[in-house]
Design a protein that fits this description.
- The protein is α/β, with parallel strands linked by helices.
- The chain has 2 domains: about 100 residues, no CATH class; about 120 residues, no CATH class.
- About 40% of the residues lie in helices and about 25% in strands.
- It is built from 8 helices and 10 strands.
- α2 runs antiparallel to α3.
């Protein structure tokens, strides 16, 4: 059994919160550069140039890429041979978020009571934490801040099994179309299919932070991702909604077995500030 003090988790979460908000991933930057090179709309090309410039300034000046520094979403893959010591794991995660958002001068956007008394918690806690138990004695941590604008454009739909593949495609395309420029395109379209109501949304969230350019290992799903990306980019929404061929940088699909009577599908849209950083203990 390997022991890990929760203070280590706090330190890593703190660092990843800051890095995710100031350092756009190389995969995203390369995709943006490729989109700028192929964009036929002068306005769309100019917008992409500004987005790329903004990411360069954020990285060099160590400033937030976007003023909306997001709801902190944390994915933990915990080896079953790991034992945490020194305190509560969940609280150690919250403390890492608290320190990261304070010391990184990141905007705090979380309100404590979502209905009756929406008062800001002042430190961007609590975080949303997803735990998965895996073999081994390692811990992988992914911090993925999620902005409110793109999250607002996301949706879960309990479709009928008879809706099938055509229904799924129609739902995804219409979701992007009706969202327009609101999620700050070019976007990543994360799609979850299967499981239960809540699990399909989790799958979509995971899909939305997959590395740009990496397809589902299932060849049929990879082909569907490419097909949907092509269809999405035919919509003409373009960068920041100003028109063009670059509405999305990627469409990613994650699936799970479903009940014979259900066909849950979730679409989680991620803006062009596709923030996520990871580390392994």
């Amino acid at each position: 059994m390997r022991e890990i003090n929760v203070s280590t988790v706090t330190d890593i979460i703190k660092r990843l919160c800051i890095e995710a908000n100031i350092d756009l991933g190389d995969d995203v930057v390369k995709a943006l550069e490729a989109a700028e090179a192929s964009e036929v709309s002068p306005t769309g090309k100019a917008v992409l140039q500004q987005i790329i410039k903004n990411s360069e300034i954020a990285r060099s000046e160590k400033l937030a890429i976007c003023q909306d520094t997001g709801f902190t979403v944390v994915f933990l893959e915990i080896g079953q041979d790991v034992h945490f010591t020194g305190g509560d794991l969940t609280e150690s995660i919250y403390e890492g978020v608290r320190q990261g958002y304070t010391e990184g001068y990141l905007r705090k956007s979380i309100v404590k009571d979502p209905i009756t008394t929406p008062v800001n918690t002042g430190d961007n806690t609590p975080a949303v934490v997803h735990l998965t138990i895996v073999p081994g004695d390692k811990v992988k941590i992914i911090v993925a801040p999620k902005g409110g604008g793109s999250e607002n454009m996301s949706e879960v739909k309990m479709m009928k099994p008879a809706d099938g593949l055509d229904g799924l495609k129609s739902f995804v395309i219409n979701k992007v179309l009706t969202s327009g420029g609101n999620p700050c395109p070019p976007i990543i379209v994360g799609i979850g299919v299967g499981g239960t109501f809540e699990y399909t949304a989790y799958l979509a969230k995971k899909a939305a932070i997959r590395e740009v350019g990496v397809h589902n290992p299932d060849p049929k799903l990879a082909d569907l991702e490419r097909e949907l990306l092509e269809e999405v980019n035919k919509l003409g929404i373009g960068p920041m909604g100003f028109g063009g061929r670059t509405t999305a940088l990627a469409v990613n699909i994650e699936v799970f077995p479903r009940h014979i009577a259900t066909f849950p599908v979730a679409v989680n849209l991620n803006c062009h500030v596709i923030r996520h950083k990871s580390a392994e203990i």
